[in-house]
Each structure stands twice: as C-alpha cells, then as structure tokens.
Amino acid sequence: MLKILNATAMLILWGAACQLFAAEQRPPNVIIILADDMGYGDAGCYGSETLKTPHLDRLAAEGMRFTDFHSSGAVCSPTRAGLMTGRYQQRAGIPGVVFADPKRNRHHGLQTTEIVLPKLLRQAGYATALFGKWHLGYRKQFNPIHHGFDRFRGFVSGNVDYISHIDGTGVADWWHDDQLTPEEGYTTRLINRNAVEFIEQHRDRPFFLYLAHEAVHSPYQAADDVPVRAVGRKRIPGTARRDIARAYQQMMTEMDNGIGEVLNTLQRLELDRETLVFFFSDNGPTKNGSNGGLRGFKGSLWEGGHRVPAVARWTGHIPPGTVNGTTCISLDLMPTILAIADVEVPEGHHLDGADLSSVLAGEENRLTRPLFWSYRNSSAMRDGNWKLIVDRNNADPQLFNLADDPQEETNLADQQPARVEAMLKSLAAWKADVLSGATKQPER
C-alpha cells in the first residue's frame, strides 16, 4: 500500500511539474489598446492637470512609459494599416484616410493578400479578437475576420455616433463579425465589455486582443448624451452643440475606466505575468486635445501630429516605473510581438519595424535607423535627433535638432546644408521604395 501511495504521490508531483513547465512555455497573451486622436499631453502620466487617467497612470507605474514613441501616420487609417502589417502603410496602398463618403475612396481597404499580425498569430494557435474601430475598409471583403481575427465587434468607419452607432454619412455601422448587427450601448462601454468577456473566455490559451477605442475622436459625446446622428442623417436637426471640453473629459474617463477593467480582469485571473499590454494613440490630437507643448496637431507632420503617448506593461518582464526615451514607431509592434510569441516572419517577407524586446526588458538599445512619414503633400524624416520636414506650406526644407528643440522652433537648414541634402536623398529613396510594388486599390 505504501508503494502505491508513493507512486501516486510521484505521479501527482510529476503532473504538477508538467503543468508548471507548460505554463512557463506558453506564449504570452498580447493586448493592444489603441486610443483615437489622443494627444501627447492628454494623460496624467504625461503631465495633464485637467484630464484624470488613474488607470493609465497605473499602467505606466507598473510598466514602461515612452517619451519618443510615434505613430506611423498623422491620421487614422494609415497608422492602423502600419500596425497590422508592420510595414509603412504606403506599401499597402493606404497612405491616407479611407473615407466613408462613396464619392471619395470608400471602396478602398486593406487587401487580404497582405501579411498581417493577427493572421500570423492565429496560425500559431492564438485566439484573436478586435473590439472597436477598424477603419481599413467598408466592404465585407475587407472585414477584420478576413484578416485573421476570430471575432469582431465594432465599426468599420472612421467614427460613429457613440450612442446610435451611425457613421458620418448617416449609415448604420455596428458589426458582429461580417454581419451588420445593431447593439444598444455607449460605444466605449461596449468595447470594454467585450474585451473583459473575451479575456475570461480565453484565459486558458494564448490570445491576441486588439482593443481599438473610438475615444477621444469626434463626435464629442458622453455616455448620458443623446444621439446626434440617425440613419440617413449626418446630424439630427435641432441637436444642440456639445460642450466639447466637458464631453472630452468624460470620454477620456470612460476609456480610462475600461483600461482599469482590463487590468483588474488580468489580475483577477492571474494573467498579469502572462500578458503584454501595450497602449498608444493612432496620431496626435485635434485642437480640442493637448499636444503636450509640441508643435502641430493631427494631420500634420510636426511632432504634435505623430509623437503620441505609449505605455507598455508585462509584469515580471518590463521593469516597473521606467521611462524610456528610445525613438520608436508603431510599426515596431508587429516584429516585437512576433518575437516574444516566437512566431517567424514568412521567408522573404520584410518588415519595416524593429523588434523592441530588449527595449522592453530595460536593456540599453539605441536603434540607429531612419524613420519616415508622408501625408498628403508633406514629408518628414528622422535621423537620430535630427528631423527634416518638407511641408506643403513651405517650399524650403526645414531641419530641427529635437534633442535641443522638441518644439521645432529653430530651423537649422541653412547651418546644415550637407545634412539637409543627404536627408532629402534618403527621403526620396524611401518614397521610391515604398511605392515600388505597393498594393493596388480597387477601381471605383
């Protein structure tokens, strides 16, 4: 009998050891939380004295806050295309906004031939979901479920009425996967509720959750406000204009509360050490938000248009309370996530982003690569601390040393003609490269 008991005990211990080993070998969960039109100065941890963001501040206190992180685009769609592909969005044929207006480019979208992050993760065994804003194609063929997402709840346009879920052309826009499915509720709360449910349902397997908030994009609506759009109406006649400052604060609060719900869910399910949470904004703010004293706003290639708040937390892996000044871009997320998930990039496929694993680990890592931006008739290049801007409103290139002049106030182009010439050549070469072989969008 004693031998039987000893054998049984050994089997139990062996089973427990196997479970522990399996847990240690399990790929990490990944949650990307994307704010919309949130400025560099729109959070407490980035110096805001008017907007209270205790949960985002907690994320920063428990992880890493970036001070030189950039979106790859100055507006919504391009950054999202870059995030999904890990490549400059020009390569995917999405250099600008995919508009809801059928007279413009509503027929464009992210082609299913693109190699995208969620598809690679799903092939590696991850459960995948997107809750919130897509903005990479209105047609069903561009729907997120055709890009590697198991589940999609949200809207495909650039923005919807937070209460009625009507887009800017008066069209209903709330989807369950690729089916238009009305659902009552304030947009931010629906996104958060779906996120928590997904985490709970997939606690026992690796998951990738893309939580794409609408906040703080217009229309400016708090949860208790009435709809301003209806089917067939871009704006309901007689709807009073909002107090934007009040609504903006409440919209930020709702999004921040959702971040708190996600963090609390991870803690309750003991998934903190198994989950990388990465928060950032898709571009700079409108003039209703704060650019943190930087120059420019959304739509511009000044720092205020693309330097954005970014915070990462992975308990036990990222040193808590750290502030990192490495120059990073949203294109870096795909190669970073694939690296920590031990998923290989398909042979022969090149990503434009860099793996930030060592940066997240707190190791010194100075990335010596140039970065580029292009939107409408403006272009910009970053080379170390030097930034070159060729702005549509100024025919002459402008050069700034961001180490001494983050506000881009002192143009040093006349003092650095050789540097300007070299950067202009690099910028021209980059444009030729990203446009060569770029994905073609369908004809109207």
From TrEMBL:
Keywords: Calcium, Hydrolase, Metal-binding, Signal. Residues 1-22 form the signal peptide. It holds the Pfam family Sulfatase. SUPFAM superfamilies: Alkaline phosphatase-like (SSF53649). It comes from the Bacteria. Residues 28-343 form the Sulfatase N-terminal domain. It is an enzyme of class 3 (hydrolase). Its EC number is 3.1.6.1. One of its GO terms (molecular function) is arylsulfatase activity. Belongs to the sulfatase family. This is Arylsulfatase. It comes from Symmachiella dynata. The gene is atsA_31.
